[in-house]
Amino acid sequence: MRIRNAGGGRARRAAAATTAALALSLTAACGGGGGDDTENTGGSEDVKATVELPDLKGETVQVAAVWTGPEQKNFETALKEFEKRTGAEVEFVPTGDNVATFIGSKIEGGAPPDVAMLPQVGVLKQFAEKGWLKPVDKATQEQLDENYSDGWKELGQADGKQYGAYFKAANKSLVWYNTAAFENAGAEEPKSWQDFLDTAQLVADSGVEPVSVGGADGWTLTDWFENVYLSQAGPEMYDKLAAHEIKWTDPSVEKALTTLGELFGEDQLLTGGKSGALQTPFPESVTKTFSDLEAPQAAMVYEGDFVGVTIANDTDAKIGSDAQVFPFPAVGEGDSPVVTAGDAAVALKDTKAAHAMMTFLASKDAARIMAEQGGFLSPNKGLDTAAYPDDVQREIAQALIDSGDDFRFDMSDQAPAAFGGTKGEGEWKALQDFLKNPEDVEGAMQALEKSAAKAFGN
């Protein structure tokens, strides 16, 4: 396998387990191209393949994705299995943070990759409208029908046609905490937003800065907002704001920003204060919490299940003992939020090789390879959760499957990329400015609405 140097960066991650389930749970033969009828999934033994793939000897397949570091390496393991079974050569193409701009430039230049991973529903729909995407073929559709719920299939559709296969999911309603820091402070897992703030203060009083925020990456701030807004305003208002059917100057937005400001406005509750948070990229927000277990720089970090990748690869902390997790706390009278996200594979070329890759990515085989390596969550309901490497990940995965279609997808990922998915612009920039000055709720709302109106065209 070859890696094409097309830029670096780290971008959005992205589906979620039901909060109730999470809270309880956390205490056919191979084709002729590439090999035999078993699939080496990286586990303790070979597992029989479940999907037939064609002979692609002499073909080169380019797959573009945002992933870097451990996530890229894990994905390359799955791509190597595709090479083994088909005889094709696979090139991994890193997109950098701005997936839409990167892929768009490749398409307009006449040299698109065969398959791309899109982390935003809004981008998928935009690309479909431009005619850049190819509908899935019969083999891929069969895998989708067998392995995915209607909700996940619908997220990959545009104008009634199926374009996307959601390969990777993310639970974006989790708070991870350093067990020792909590024990030293006498803290317990909070259930409500007020409990969360009180717990943060208790930890601060013990001498540890409570909450590590990766504010240098604007996407983390959109996730903070979305969890507060969904819990506080409810799913119907969430859907309206996601579609820009209500303005970002709506009283519900003001209320959510004011609530979020109860945390962002207290320097003693943030690792390094507001200034430190704005200079902290997402991976560092995790390592600050778990690298030094005896004297951590932070006690808690909010983000999705993919935090586990950084914990496992960049710290000595053990998930389930040193590092534990609780659902994002309920805000006001609302329920604990269930915010989801994911990366959809789409075909940019109507070729045998591109469709074969799509079929593979929609199968249990590819999902199993990724799950066994850890730090990965699949919406593939056909995947046996025993494939996940530890109980925490197994229970998160099972709760995701049990949730069916009862979830809300990441709001910023549903928006046009100019508003919800571009570094230094739109929602990312407006919320970074808000973190810098949480008292200016009105200014944040005006900036958000101006950018949203321009991106949505209304």
UniProtKB/TrEMBL annotation:
Q: Which Gene3D superfamilies match?
A: Periplasmic binding protein-like II (3.40.190.10)
Write out the entry's keywords from A to Z. Answer: Signal, Transport
Q: Which InterPro entries does the UniProt record give? A: Bact_solute-bd_prot1, SBP
Q: Does the keyword Signal apply?
A: yes
* Stored Pfam families: SBP_bac_1 (PF01547)
- Signal peptide positions are 1-28
The entry assigns this protein to a family as follows: Belongs to the bacterial solute-binding protein 1 family.
Q: Per its record, how is this protein called by name?
A: Extracellular solute-binding protein
UniProt lineage: Bacteria, Bacillati, Actinomycetota, Actinomycetes, Kitasatosporales
